[in-house]
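Researcher: First entry.
Model:
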Amino acid sequence: MTDTAMEPGTTEAVPAGKSLGRRAVERFLKNKAAMGGVIVIALIAALSFIVPMVSPHDIVAVNWSHVLTPPSFSSGYWFGTDTNGRDLMVRTFYAGRISLAIGVLSTGIAFIIGVTYGATSGFLGGRVDSVMMRICDVIYALPTLFFIVILVTVFRAKNIFFVFMCIGAVEWLTMARIVRGQTLSVKRKEYVESAWAIGLTRLQILKRYIIPNVTGAVIVYVTLLIPVNILIESYLSFLGLGVQEPLTSWGLLISQGSTELASAPWLLIFPALFLTITLFAFNFIGDGLRDALDPRDR
């Protein structure tokens, strides 16, 4: 007879030998919406790298004989062309590279800053914690998008790397609060007290015990933050403060397509469609991770 254990908060019996991580992975793999989101993101990412490389049409090549050609398979322009005769399909998938890169990298910056700041604040506690949290409150008082626009405008950023640095430098605040709350709980655990007893320093305890045990709680928020950052980049590009020509992003394509909506609606439809699908896919992944990591929320 196989030993089984009942997981807290659920009615599901699982083998006693399975680790929490393995059970979380199994729950995530069984979530059809989350796995569908993973497949969609992987497909869009793959197409974003492959299509611009294999297409006979260059992303910046101007073709005045095919200006505003409607989408059709016979013409070779499946998504149509823009006001300069450029292949919209190539530009849409190339824009996917930029938008996904900005979403992931800016979230990575926010993750590093937020986890480090929140773990340090919660671990040190006392007056240091109060001062660090008041700093967060001051920054919270500024509208996020407005603050990012100020940073981009003041530093006159013309490089996409500076754009995602500006986004990541602002979007870490909520993550820091989440990590701080988890840290306040973790630092009272027995294994942390044992670490103090054997003489480990604060930095060693922070690196070995605190941060590894709180990062799981922010994984869900990280997944949900990626589409938010993609959307922020789209706002900036729509306002002319984000990605600039000859590079492009979904936000920039939407901005350009909105000016030709009456005569060439495909210029807006295709980039907006891919942006919407990507946002939904990331949200499904985030929901799946939440259910997998904390089954009591189901």
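Researcher: Second entry.
Model:
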Amino acid sequence: MSGPLAGIRILEVGVMLAGPYATMLLADLGAEVIKIEPPGGEISREVGPSYFASLNRNKRSICLDLTSESGQARLGELVAESHALLVNMKPSVIRKLGLTYSALSRFNSRIVCVALTGFGLDGGDEPAFDYVIQAATGIAAMTGDPAGPPTLPGYSSADNSTGLAAALGLLAQIVSGRGGQVEVSLLDVMLSQLNYRASAYLNDGIEPQRFPHGAHSYYVPAQLFPTAEGYLALFVTHDGFWKAFAAEAGIDGFATMAERVSRREEVLSVVTVALAADTAAGWERRLRPLGIPAAAVRTLPEALKEYTHAIVTAGDFRLVGSPIRVAGYEPAYRPPPTLEG
């Protein structure tokens, strides 16, 4: 079975992470992705082969100097034969290189042009790296221990999330059958992902609080807990979960969510004492068969050793495969492209 995006051709003028991740997901689903690289190659090639492979498998590559007349001419030819172009660069560079719908529609009126930027095409050229956006949108301020400094996650959540949104916007416009300009910014995506946090403040004036061990603001108990060995993530979102957990852990009382929220510290104290009786791995083995959301905290190497179904081979590289699984279709993972002239 061919991929669901077979027959779709997408051009990418991508840099580092967000843009290349978006088009790689589309390539995994069968789209033909042509990565347009400048002389010398896209900058992420310099980071290392495994980094480049993790964002650029299943693509073709072509080297074009888009600042030259010949490069622009070749770009026009490619646009005429493609469904979409995705670019993630500064707005001024996007416009300078003619990578907008207004500049490219003369070659193909149905081309979909996706601009992935930090603050929008009209938002200026200020640097907009992942960590900068997390700081600017309040994410860092609401993350970490209450007594400690603001905290950033250990991976590029803003870039990856924006890549997903860009892929969605690109496909939506292709499905519409119309060409046009699509914009996705890191700022807008991360604000959007604060959904219920932002709504609580905008409608009820509730500012986000940091709780120890990453505790949830609405549900109790829902956080990390120390155990006899390691940490356990426990996420009790309704009274049924609590009843099953409390019976297994030997805890009495606190039957309703309202009571558990109003008596948060008492609940957390009792749960902490109970969980100290076994290891995180032991609690996971005991709680999961009961349908209780719980997981021992694993390192990345431990997770990859356990969840081997997610690992694929692309040439000489072992990578995490596509998260999108389509019945009857299995991507043929190919290695990242060499730089072609």
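Model: Note on the second entry: The longest strand covers residues 32-37.
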